[in-house]
Amino acid sequence: MVGVGGRSKACAACRRRRVKCDERKPKCLRCVKGNYDCGGYREMRFIQFGEALSQPENAAASSTDSNNAGDQALALRQASDTTSKHQVHSLSLSLCPIPSISSFQDDICVTYTLTHLLNGASYDGKTRAPSHHWSDEPLANTCFLSLATTYFGSQHREERLVKKGLQLYGVALRELHTALADAHQCQTRNVLDSVVTLNFLEFLISDNPDGWLGHSSGLERLFELRGPESFQTTPERLILEQSRPGIIFASLALRKSTILSSPEWKMVPWAVHQEKKSSMQFLVDILADCPYLYMVKEEITSSGGILLELSAAQHIVNKVSEILKKLESWKIQWDSEHGNACFEVAAPQTGPVYHNPDGETMSVWSTILHYESLSAANETTLYNAILILLLKLAQDLLLFTDDPNFGGDLIASRMYAAGIEICRSVEYHLLHYQVGVGSFYVLFPLRMAWQAVGRSNSCIGLWLEHLLQRIAFGVPVGNCTVAGKWAVASYLLKDFANIKGTEGF
Known about the structure:
Elements: H1 12-17, H2 29-34, H3 63-79, H4 84-95, H5 105-116, H6 138-155, H7 159-180, H8 189-205, H9 209-226, H10 234-254, H11 263-267, H12 279-288, H13 290-301, H14 306-337, E1 342-346, E2 353-355, E3 361-363, E4 367-371, H15 374-396, H16 408-431, H17 443-454, H18 458-473, E5 474-477, E6 480-483, H19 488-499
Helix pairs in contact: 5-6, 6-7, 6-8, 7-8, 8-9, 9-10, 10-12, 10-13, 12-14, 12-15, 13-14, 13-15, 14-15, 15-16, 15-17, 16-17, 17-18, 18-19
């Protein structure tokens, strides 16, 4: 990293881009090749108190000149005895200026982001993408600096920094488009890191679905170009694991299938180290099968052929039944390995309330759920979210099945129970709200809990909407305001408003 081990001798452009400089003059080779404005090098400046102290240019200067120079220097010293302390003080201030905080702005933003956003538990309890270290890749560095500056600015409500981060985002996008147009560069780790980072930034800052949906679809296309074999190495596999849920959520929203549902994408990346595949990743395998079902359902609703509708609907019902069996098998295995992962504690006063016939304010539930780890909480809430997603699909197709497991009352009761379990887990997630990226993965379960419970229970529905507002925009705590973390939560709020009283995922 430029700057480590003393003051950097790199040129201005390399210091700014945080890349290694070869220190060639007048312009470094890296800047010449990259067509960058080099900016030159820092030069050490010496302060001289008059021409009398200057060294003669000619090394063979006469002894007379030397004596004259010495006499002048002595005279200068004698004349300045009364002000020598003041001169030394001025000299020290000139040589060692006190740096302003803006001099370290990038480092502050990066360190804060690494500490508060990326140095905590992810959805499965491990710190993962977008991981970062400064490298020789300007594109990846620009993308990460855009993320760090925007995140720091939004968390501290510094509009100037947010604006700077978004300007860097525009620069990064232009550079990324150029790299993607190159057949070789588009499959490099540099481009992969950059796309993942910008996709992550969209989740943080954009309440416009076009942003994160477009980036997630682009990331999926990049994965497809690289192929599942390219993700067998540890760094690439971790990026894949971190990115899969976002890609699947985007596919659900767009009503299209995803390449991640194919067997090779569920097996090949872990073929070399099968023991590295976590229980969360097996659960995500099940989630990956769901977008296809909603895509077919969408085609049914727009089709005019009755026989085609009946055939396709029965196909969906059979697939739902098949996936539900996989989901239940996963849950049985998970319970056997995490028997004591979940426990009840007294419910705080921040939960949903209702008024009983006597006008008393009562909590909807008396206890909430806590977990041994955030990964256990995320796995449990995602399991319940997938269960609701599948049961809701079966509920919409009840006319096309005589399966006793899909009775109307049975589906409704199972969906309600799963939704309540998600709601009772949310407080635990909010305890880890500022730690790592794990809190992002409660957004989809919250959306499904509203589908299962919030639409029919106004108390819980309003409470869920308040939670998403808290996550998206911030919530007052005492005399200060905590900045919101995931702007994409505001998209879910808009979705709530659009589907109240209607059907929909």
